[in-house]
Amino acid sequence: MKRALAALLLCALVVSGIAIVRMTGVERVHFVFNPQGSTVYSPFNAVVDRIRIGVERVAVHRYFTIYSYVTGDESHMELLLMLEHLDKLALQIGQPEIRVKDNLGNLLTPFPYYEVLGYPTDDPLGYKLTLWTRFPPPEKEVSHIDIYCKYLGKSFEINSVPIR
């Protein structure tokens, strides 16, 4: 009985130690420009033909693998944009073209995976969409980015969005 209890205690100690080591290897930076439930629009937006596109969230995730058999870098920058028709007309869900240019002049292209969803997801309004995509992580010296988005034939440009 004592051996089983000691083995169980040792196993719990090892698992919690691994969890603590993995948590210390993650750096997360979040900027939320429009908290949920708020009717205030993002200060970083562009309006073209009565369609507003605004930055809801920019998050830079940096992962560091420490003392693990698993290798690889899952670091990335997430970008969440909100599209809204100002006349409350229905928006079509289409394929976006997004590029990001940082203040150092580097042009970042997104990973192939993206999501365009109605907002809110449980009962979409029709005139609001969320656009979520991931990019390679920017260099540590980058302080702001410019976002270039082409959606449904319209080109949007949002300048000087801070990421640090």
Jot down its keywords.
164 residues; mainly beta; Immunoglobulin-like; 6-stranded antiparallel sheet; 4-stranded antiparallel sheet; 1 helix; 14% helix; elongated
Number of strands: 10
CATH topology descriptor: Immunoglobulin-like
Distance between the termini: 54 Å
The percentage of residues in β strands lies in: 35-45%
Which segments are poorly predicted (pLDDT under 50) over 5 or more consecutive residues? none
Structural account:
The protein is mainly beta. The strands form 2 sheets. Strands 1, 2, 3, 4, 7 and 8 form a 6-stranded antiparallel beta sheet that branches. It has a 4-stranded antiparallel beta sheet with strand order 6-5-9-10, with no helix packed on it. It has one domain: Immunoglobulin-like (Sandwich), CATH 2.60.40. The longest helix is centred in the first third of the chain and has 23 residues, at 2-24. The chain has one helix spanning 2-24, and strands at residues 26-32, 45-48, 51-63, 76-85, 97-102, 107-108, 114-118, 128-135, 144-151, 154-162. The radius of gyration is 21 Å and the shape is elongated.
Blueprint (SSEs and pairs):
Elements: H1 2-24, E1 26-32, E2 45-48, E3 51-63, E4 76-85, E5 97-102, E6 107-108, E7 114-118, E8 128-135, E9 144-151, E10 154-162
Antiparallel strand pairs: 1-3, 2-3, 3-4, 4-8, 5-6, 5-9, 7-8, 9-10
